[in-house]
Specification:
The complex is a heterotrimer. Chain A is of the alpha/beta class. Chain A contains nine helices and ten strands. The two termini of chain C are 29 Å apart. The chains are: A alpha/beta, B mainly alpha, C mainly alpha.
Chain lengths: 267, 297, 308
């Protein structure tokens, strides 16, 4: 399948189709021929040992890197090689391993940025605070509060972001991504560095999102968390897809356990 | 026609050698401490003025040269100890603004002390031009090229063969890791400044007889050195080659197009090269430059 | 806005001796506020605003002196020339921190060299004379007092516009870009376009400032700016406060008004901007305004505490 086609017929009804994705950095092959689907309304977990290229894969899908071979198709349209902000408009957004919140602004101010992508009022109107601009600001505010609510952080909206714990900041960054009303949300190690309590809160929030019908692709190291929230698990190791299927079954596969040798969080 | 070309080449090689020296200083400081060393040109200018002053008082060239180099080293230590070490905010951008500000202050202070006129060092080698392949070069020009070659070799040797040099490389690539291994980034930064000052002083000695310097001209020399460093992607060997390349381009441009545009050509090259280079670079130094927070506060 | 009223009343309070320096502060304040937007909020530290201001100044001067255009048209032309320059050079804002700073510094030097080179157009090193006195919309604005109110009116208007702009989607986008570009991109912000917009906007302000300066000074020379002005402007932003809207104005007042009244010589005056830049970047990176504000807050709190 040539990666140059603009429109690829959806061959599986999946929201996101990754096909034969290959990425090299100089002489180093990160992964090759990676293919998997993400069905509408499902939560797919992406796991694998350190250095397997999970973040690189997400970067390729979210427009930050261009794969060398292969393509990703979102809702029938090719998205690899498209700029991140365009993808956000199309309904794909992602989080990063650090929350990168503006520390001296309030949580609300941080999250409302995510809602901007849905705005259409003319920018010049901002200079004199035109009616259209002010109305839009109210809509942004509503979207932001709804997003904060869905991760359970609505009560923090007025606090300065710097006063939050790492776990709370992470949840806020998820809210910021949600504020753009995405159809596909990519999460890059949301539980990294969180303590047990915070991981629990995160797990709850993600489960709620999954139940509400959001489509999520989540990279995680915490295998316990990921098996709890995911409908399906994809294992990336040794430069390719090692396993793909039901979380419990995948984790029991010998090959997967071996790939994780020395880091067995399984069960 | 051809002799013109040779003459331009000779001139370009000479100025290119100096640019290469300056670029060496920039690369040294950048690799060791990640800072933009706007002071590089000031060392050259101050060095020249020290030589001139000492010569006016009857000192021999040897004494004057040593004096100039010593002055530069003292200046570098002062900047490092009194200013950089005290920086409280320490975002990389504010450090660089401080260096830029200091460079301008040095230039103005020098003008206050020594007046606005350009000064040149009295020639200390025989001035009769020698003919090489048909182009006329003065012994001073040859000295400039030779000294640059020697300096480059010395720097290359120091950085790749001595443990100190390897420590500097390690520090540049990974400051946190370097600390764990016992290397002290602060100490290395001081050494980097001193090294750059030495280079500046030496450049003053070879450049003084060739070109007159105005007190405020330091910044332009600094910029030329920076351009060469960027062209060389911050490698030591490349720095000298890039400097020579820059000198040649300038010389041909001035000779064949118009001398008025001499500076514009090399300065524009910087902008063009940066824009072209701006895209993807895996070089660790360039990468570090791009990922550090460059805010004012 | 209380600060604005205070400023406008200053000549009354302090007498007309303070006018020339305050006029300069107001004129360049327009450019400084633009740089505050660019460098303070968007994080694009530009050392080349003086270059764009020079373009604006010379363009306006040329229109006024050689083509005898009325002031309104000349000022507009100057601003337009600056904006055009900014648009043409906008790819520069894609560069990251250090490279942006040096590239813009280089731009300023290039502009200065070009001004000297094209002496037939610009009067070269000898300078440019012949700018008409300023009359706007029929008003004669050539007296110092009137000029003072004009430039400070413009400066405060620019600050007000900036405040609105920064509180909007655009301002928040700039803040996010400043914090972490990938996050901004993932949130749907077209980073390149926003940076270019900030660049062009601040370029426009710089050009307007330059054009106004041409009318005030009635004489332009390639050495007055671009480089010293660029340094002065970035120093003003650092000294006054990069983030607060009024910060750059405060910084500029400190930089321009102080030396005139301390009667420093020509060279010491030239040294003041770099010196303050060094001092503030080293020890007070947040600038004057935030410190004053927190000081005022503490005083008010103590007062409130005493009352309670």
């Amino acid at each position: 399948m040539s990666g140059d086609d603009q429109m690829l017929a959806p061959d599986s009804g999946a929201l996101l189709s990754v096909r034969s994705l290959t990425k090299r950095f100089g002489g180093l092959q990160v992964f090759s021929d990676v293919s998997f689907d993400v069905e509408r309304g499902s939560v797919v977990g992406l796991i694998g040992p350190n250095g397997a290229g999970k973040s690189t894969l997400i970067d390729c899908i979210s427009g930050f890197l261009r794969p060398d071979v292969g393509a990703a198709v979102f809702d029938g349209r090719r998205i690899t090689g498209v700029a991140p902000h365009v993808l956000c408009r199309a309904g794909i957004t992602r989080t990063f391993q650090h929350a990168h919140l503006l520390q001296n602004l309030s949580v609300f101010d941080n999250v409302v940025v995510g809602a901007h992508v849905r705005g259409t009022a003319r920018l010049a109107g901002a200079l004199w605070r035109s009616r259209a601009v002010m109305a839009e600001e109210r809509e942004f505010a509503d979207a932001a509060m709804a997003a904060l609510d869905s991760v359970g952080c609505a009560h923090l909206s007025g606090s300065p972001a710097g006063a939050l714990t790492a776990g709370q900041q992470r949840l806020v960054s998820v809210a910021r991504a949600l504020a753009s009303q995405p159809r596909l949300l990519l999460l890059d190690e949301p539980a990294a560095g969180l303590n047990e309590h915070e991981t629990g809160a995160l797990s709850e929030a993600l489960t709620r999102l999954g139940a509400a019908g959001f489509t999520l692709l989540v990279i995680e190291h915490d295998v316990k968390l990921i098996t709890t929230i995911s409908h399906r698990l994809v294992v990336l190791a040794n430069g390719g897809v090692l396993a793909d299927g039901d979380p419990v079954a995948v984790c029991e596969q010998q090959a997967v356990v071996e790939a994780y040798l020395g880091t067995s969080h399984v069960h | 026609m051809f002799t013109d070309f040779l003459q331009f080449t000779a001139g370009g090689l000479t100025s290119g050698a100096i640019y290469g020296l300056l670029a060496l200083g920039w690369v040294l400081v950048m690799r060791v401490s990640g800072l933009l060393f706007f002071l590089q040109g000031e060392f050259v200018v101050v060095g020249v003025f020290v030589i001139v002053t000492l010569q006016d008082h009857g000192a021999s060239i040897a004494v004057a040269a040593v004096g100039a180099i010593a002055a530069c080293v003292v200046g570098a230590l002062a900047v490092d100890g009194l200013v950089i070490r005290r920086l409280r905010s320490a975002t990389p951008m504010s450090e660089v603004l401080v260096l830029l500000g200091l460079a301008l202050l040095a230039g103005h202070a020098l003008q206050q002390i020594a007046g606005p006129n350009a000064r040149g060092v009295k020639p200390f080698l025989p001035t009769k031009p020698v003919s090489i392949f048909g182009a006329f070069v003065t012994p001073h020009q040859i000295a400039a090229v030779v000294v640059t070659a020697v300096a480059t070799a010395a720097v290359w040797f120091g950085v790749t063969r001595t443990s100190l040099g390897r420590a500097m490389q390690a520090c540049a690539d990974n400051p946190e890791g370097a600390v764990l291994v016992g290397i002290r980034p602060v100490r290395l930064r001081t050494l980097g400044f001193v090294g750059a000052a030495l280079i500046g002083g030496v450049a003053a000695v070879v450049l003084g007889p060739l070109a007159a310097m105005t007190p405020l001209g330091g910044l332009l020399w600094s910029l030329k050195g920076f351009i060469a460093a960027v062209l060389a992607r911050w490698s030591f060997m490349g720095a000298v080659a890039a400097g020579i390349f820059l000198g040649l381009i300038e010389s041909y441009g001035a000779g064949y197009i118009s001398s008025v545009y001499k500076d514009v050509i090399s300065l524009s090259m910087l902008v063009v090269v940066l824009l072209l280079q701006g895209a993807v670079s895996r070089d660790s130094i360039v990468q570090r430059l791009r990922t550090r927070r460059m805010s004012l506060r | 806005m209380a600060a604005g009223v205070i400023i406008l009343l200053l000549p009354v309070v302090l007498g007309h001796g303070v006018l020339p320096s305050m006029i300069l502060a107001g004129t360049w304040g327009v450019a400084a506020v633009g740089l505050g937007l660019l460098a303070g909020r968007a994080g694009l530290v530009s050392l080349g605003q003086g270059g764009i201001a020079a373009v604006g100044a010379y363009a306006a001067a040329y229109a006024s002196a050689r083509w005898a255009w009325p002031a309104e048209a000349a000022l507009a032309f100057g601003t337009f020339a600056g904006v055009a320059t900014a648009v043409v050079t906008s790819p520069i804002c894609r560069l990251s921190g250090f490279y942006l700073a040096t590239a813009t510094l280089t731009l300023a030097v290039i502009v200065q060299r070009l001004l000297v080179a094209y002496s037939s157009l610009t009067g070269g090193a000898n300078g440019f004379v012949g700018i008409r006195p300023l009359t706007l919309l029929g008003f004669d604005v050539s007296t110092e007092l009137r000029f003072f109110y004009l430039v400070w009116g413009i400066a405060l208007l620019v600050v007000a516009l900036n405040v609105n702009l920064l509180r909007s989607r655009f301002g928040r986008a700039l803040d996010t870009i400043h914090a972490h570009e990938p996050t901004a991109a993932a949130a749907g912000i077209n980073v390149a376009r926003h940076k270019a917009a900030a660049w062009v906007i601040s370029g426009g302000y710089a050009a307007l400032a330059g054009a106004l300066y041409a009318y005030y000074n009635q004489y332009l020379s390639p050495d007055q700016f671009p480089l010293p002005r660029s340094i002065e402007l970035i120093a003003a932003v650092v000294v006054g406060g990069a983030v607060a809207p009024l910060g750059p104005l405060v910084g500029l007042v400190a930089l321009i008004v102080l030396p005139t009244h301390l009667n420093l010589g020509k060279h010491l005056t030239a040294m003041l901007a770099p010196a303050l830049l060094v001092i503030f970047a080293s020890f007070f990176p947040r600038g004057i305004v935030p410190h004053v504000r927190s000081f005022a807050d503490r005083v008010l709190q103590r007062r409130a505490g005493a009352d309670a």
